[in-house]
UniProtKB/TrEMBL annotation:
InterPro entries: SET_dom_sf, SETD3_SETD6_MTase. GO terms for molecular function: protein-lysine N-methyltransferase activity. It comes from the Eukaryota. Residues 272-321 are annotated as: Disordered. This is SET domain-containing protein. Gene3D superfamilies: set domain protein methyltransferase, domain 1. Residues 272-283 have a biased composition (Polar residues).
């Protein structure tokens, strides 16, 4: 799908020849590819393409099946020739930054004193290298990056008006405020370091932080580093294997653009084979930054990412260099069964991201995104206002493993979606909201039941379909129990209807941006600038999904009310027929 709505702004035309030479000097094998202006849209920036001189025998897929949305394929076998390779030692990671001969000690001091964490140290590094200009060792790459991104944290006040009534409007404000707080603590130390040893022409500003933040979150990756062999093979043998994960940016690979459905390419990390068993998941403490399970959920790009303080690392060894001295490599590969032609742009997947994530992180949105969804929050007051009853509800939520926020996917839009999956999503939300309509006594009873017999307690969940089939044949006692459970479900359904009605009003009412139909009309106009197009595509999805679930929630509420009335009528009839006759 054309991505004309992705906005980048360059200070000058990038020197692609110098960029290519620089990547090769840093150990990249890019003989089969070339970096040039992307074809996915007028403002999409640079992309990676199969070289016009690449021969067909070079364009072989790596062994393994096709993965629609992951960087890795868990059943891959021996890897054939990749399209491109980049050494991990040349990636921009916290550990590699600490080895910088000029500013490494200064970065280490900031890390040890809690001024930065392993993410914000990368942002500080990007700021410093940008201000060094052509004197920077990464200048050819920095010069190929946009100077302004179309992400909400960089929006003007007028541009933020395009997000009125959406969750992203509030989220952008929260992120920007936290970035201002981060800058207040980072700026004195960073500018002192740059004045003393940086060789820069001016001091860093908050705008530089916004730029570096956007670079990190739009181009950064979570890199699962195996001890030996390919990361995907380690995870195929043991999906829960502990594996070292580094966060950073891989210059060169970061020019691969996003494709929503069936991208042809993926990336893989491999380390030279060693005597150490790669399956053991054992931790290499000499070079470990962060050891976490299976990296399917380690993408640093959360919905509304905000830098947090973290414990500093004490690692000093070159990250990306295996124990034997050979470099860990990041390969760009073809999925099995796919073919590419010379001159074709190579696309990867950034993950199954909603438009809210895509706009917040990358500055674009995809009309009809199959992974789109809305996020809502449970009706929880501020912590200071929690009473004993609310504390009980939160404890019950934890025991039931419910979350305080929930997501509703686009009904029937995802490739694997069906009517059943949509109804399952609705049912999951209703079960969560039931916790907030229980009385204090009912919460206590459920907590006791879960602690006594969790399996039995979970088996007694509300099931409207089952009630509709069975109620006619139930006795009075069972009908009374059913009536009570339906009352709880009625409260939850009514709460969800109210929440969705409020969301519709926020999106489409006086404080919003107009109706869903108006946004559809706007999307059809080719005259929209890139920022407005992305905003309209995002809010159009929000309005569509909210309306659909409001319709489903109202129908569910009506079904419950109808069944409740039938049960009440039957209870009244049973009460009348069982009363003893009065003799005159």
């Amino acid at each position: 799908m054309p991505r004309r709505f992705l906005r980048f702004s360059y200070a000058e035309t990038p020197d692609l020849k110098k960029l290519t030479e620089w990547l090769r000097a840093r150990g990249a094998n890019i003989s089969l590819v070339q970096i040039k202006e992307s074809k996915v849209g007028n403002s999409a920036g640079l992309g990676m393409f199969i070289s016009e001189t690449a021969s067909h025998q070079h364009l072989k897929p790596c062994m393994g099946s096709h993965s629609k949305s992951r960087w890795w394929w868990p059943f891959s076998s021996a890897m054939q020739q990749p399209l491109a390779s980049f050494p991990l030692s040349s990636a921009i990671t916290a550990a590699n930054i600490l080895r910088d001969p000029q500013l490494g000690r200064g970065y280490s001091w900031m890390l040890q004193h809690g001024v930065v964490d392993e993410r914000t140290i990368i942002m500080a590094y990007l700021i410093a290298e940008k201000l060094k200009g052509d004197a920077s060792e990464v200048a050819p790459w920095i010069n190929a990056l946009p100077r302004r991104f179309g992400t909400p944290v960089m929006f003007s006040e007028a541009e933020l008006e395009e997000l009125k009534g959406t969750p992203l409007q509030k989220a952008a404000g929260i992120v920007r405020k936290r970035l201002e707080e981060l800058w207040a603590s980072l700026e004195p130390a960073l500018n002192t370091l740059l004045r003393e040893k940086g060789g820069v022409s001016r001091e860093a500003t908050f705008d530089d932080l916004l730029w570096a933040y956007s670079v990190f979150w739009s181009r950064g990756q979570s890199l699962p580093v195996p001890q030996s062999g390919a990361a995907s093979q380690v995870l195929a043998r043991d999906p829960y294997a502990m594996i070292e994960v580094q966060e950073g940016i891989v210059p060169g690979l970061d020019f691969c653009n996003h494709q929503v459905v069936a991208p042809k390419c993926w990336w893989e990390l491999t380390a030279p084979d060693s005597n150490q068993d790669a399956d053991t998941g054992s931790k290499n403490t000499d070079r470990s930054i962060n050891m976490i399970p299976n990296p399917k959920n380690t993408d640093p790009k959360s919905v509304h990412p905000v830098p947090d303080k973290a414990s500093p690392s004490t690692s000093s060894q070159t990250v990306g260099v295996a124990p034997g001295g050979s470099d860990v490599l990041i390969h760009l590969c073809l999925h099995r069964g796919t073919k590419v032609s010379t001159g074709e742009e190579l696309m990867i997947s950034y993950g199954d991201k909603s438009n809210e994530e895509l706009l917040m992180l990358y500055g674009f949105a995809v009309p009809g995104n199959p992974h789109d969804r809305i996020m809502m929050h449970c009706p929880v007051p501020p912590f200071a206002e929690w009473d004993e009853a609310m504390q009980g509800r939160i404890e019950l939520m934890k025991m039931l493993r419910y979350e305080l926020q929930f997501f509703l996917p686009h009904p029937g839009n995802a490739p694997e979606a069906s009517e059943n999956s949509t109804l399952e999503a609705l049912e999951s939300v209703l079960r969560t909201l039931e916790v907030f309509v229980l009385t204090k006594e009912e919460v206590t009873q459920k907590l006791h039941a879960l602690k006594t017999s969790r399996t039995e307690a979970l088996s007694k969940r509300f099931n409207l379909d089952e009630f509709q089939r069975r109620w006619v044949n139930l006795d009075t006692t069972s009908l009374l129990v059913m009536s009570k459970e339906m009352g709880i479900r009625m409260g939850a359904a009514a709460a969800l209807v109210k929440m969705l009605e409020t969301r519709v009003q926020d999106l489409e009412g006086a404080g919003g941006t107009g109706t869903f139909e108006q946004d559809l009309h706007l999307l059809s106009k080719m005259s929209l600038d890139s920022t407005k197009f992305a905003c309209v595509a995002y809010r159009c999805g929000q309005k569509c999904i909210t309306r659909e679930y409001l319709k489903l929630a109202r129908q569910h509420l009506q079904d419950v009310l109808t069944l409740m009335q039938d049960v009440e009528d039957k209870l009244k009839h049973k009460s009348t027929t069982t009363q003893p006759s009065v003799r005159g």
